Amino acid sequence: MITLTEENYLKALYRLSMGQEPVSVKSIAGLLDIKMPTVTSMVNKLAEKKLVRYEKYKAIELTERGKKAALHILRKHRLTELFLTQVMGLGWEEVHDIAEQVEHIQSERFFNRVDEMLGFPRFDPHGEPIPDASGKLPVMNAFPLSNGTPGKKYKLAGVLNHEPSFLTFLNSLQLALGTAIEIKQVQVFDASMEVVLNGKTKTVFSSLVCENLLVL
């Protein structure tokens, strides 16, 4: 049996493993805002359960069993976020903390039913891929708007920053998944972009905003 705390660690490990840097006790402590000795103790427990591979001074890696468990938690989290937005009408800036609680429900039947009710979706309200019941992730080909080309038109497919303040900012621009974005010009000085949204609204995105918008 995997505890609630262990599930949170596995999810954090999976998230960190998607980055460029090796996963360490320090990086886990930073992400979860927990003291390093506490993290070391938990990582040792996860290693005893064969959920991670851990040797002192070496990168921490999820085992296949650990990865499967992490993807299962992500599936529950992302399905919950989509249910809260599509069925209950909550904003995409409101759902993360609620999903953090719901993801620990153990009923497979419950989440499989949610999946079915939503039509077996492939992506959550932030554009993150949702693992299917077997743990398989759909392919995501989106890339940061900052890598886009002036004169080209794209569609918003996801966001990298899930902070409520950022999502609320996007709401103020009426920017949502599926919004058409045409890059008119990129400023050499600060990499800010002049864009047109849905063919009518002109605005300027900072380089930081562009880096956090995923488009197709």
Automatic annotation (TrEMBL):
<keyword id="KW-0678">Repressor</keyword>
<comment type="function">
    <text>In the presence of manganese, represses expression of mntH and mntS. Up-regulates expression of mntP.</text>
</comment>
<keyword id="KW-0464">Manganese</keyword>
<comment type="similarity">
    <text>Belongs to the DtxR/MntR family.</text>
</comment>
<dbReference type="Pfam" id="PF04023">
    <property type="entry name" value="FeoA"/>
</dbReference>
<keyword id="KW-0963">Cytoplasm</keyword>
<keyword id="KW-0238">DNA-binding</keyword>
<protein>
    <recommendedName>
        <fullName>Transcriptional regulator MntR</fullName>
    </recommendedName>
</protein>
<dbReference type="GO" id="GO:0046914">
    <property type="term" value="F:transition metal ion binding"/>
</dbReference>
<keyword id="KW-0805">Transcription regulation</keyword>
<dbReference type="Pfam" id="PF01325">
    <property type="entry name" value="Fe_dep_repress"/>
</dbReference>
<keyword id="KW-0010">Activator</keyword>
<dbReference type="InterPro" id="IPR022689">
    <property type="entry name" value="Iron_dep_repressor"/>
</dbReference>
<dbReference type="InterPro" id="IPR036390">
    <property type="entry name" value="WH_DNA-bd_sf"/>
</dbReference>
<dbReference type="GO" id="GO:0046983">
    <property type="term" value="F:protein dimerization activity"/>
</dbReference>
<comment type="subunit">
    <text>Homodimer.</text>
</comment>
<dbReference type="GO" id="GO:0003677">
    <property type="term" value="F:DNA binding"/>
</dbReference>
<dbReference type="InterPro" id="IPR007167">
    <property type="entry name" value="Fe-transptr_FeoA-like"/>
</dbReference>
<dbReference type="GO" id="GO:0045892">
    <property type="term" value="P:negative regulation of DNA-templated transcription"/>
</dbReference>
<dbReference type="InterPro" id="IPR050536">
    <property type="entry name" value="DtxR_MntR_Metal-Reg"/>
</dbReference>
<keyword id="KW-0804">Transcription</keyword>
<dbReference type="Pfam" id="PF02742">
    <property type="entry name" value="Fe_dep_repr_C"/>
</dbReference>
<dbReference type="InterPro" id="IPR001367">
    <property type="entry name" value="Fe_dep_repressor"/>
</dbReference>
<dbReference type="InterPro" id="IPR022687">
    <property type="entry name" value="HTH_DTXR"/>
</dbReference>
<dbReference type="GO" id="GO:0003700">
    <property type="term" value="F:DNA-binding transcription factor activity"/>
</dbReference>
<feature type="domain" description="HTH dtxR-type">
    <location>
        <begin position="1"/>
        <end position="63"/>
    </location>
</feature>
<dbReference type="InterPro" id="IPR036388">
    <property type="entry name" value="WH-like_DNA-bd_sf"/>
</dbReference>
<dbReference type="InterPro" id="IPR036421">
    <property type="entry name" value="Fe_dep_repressor_sf"/>
</dbReference>
<dbReference type="GO" id="GO:0005737">
    <property type="term" value="C:cytoplasm"/>
</dbReference>
<dbReference type="InterPro" id="IPR038157">
    <property type="entry name" value="FeoA_core_dom"/>
</dbReference>
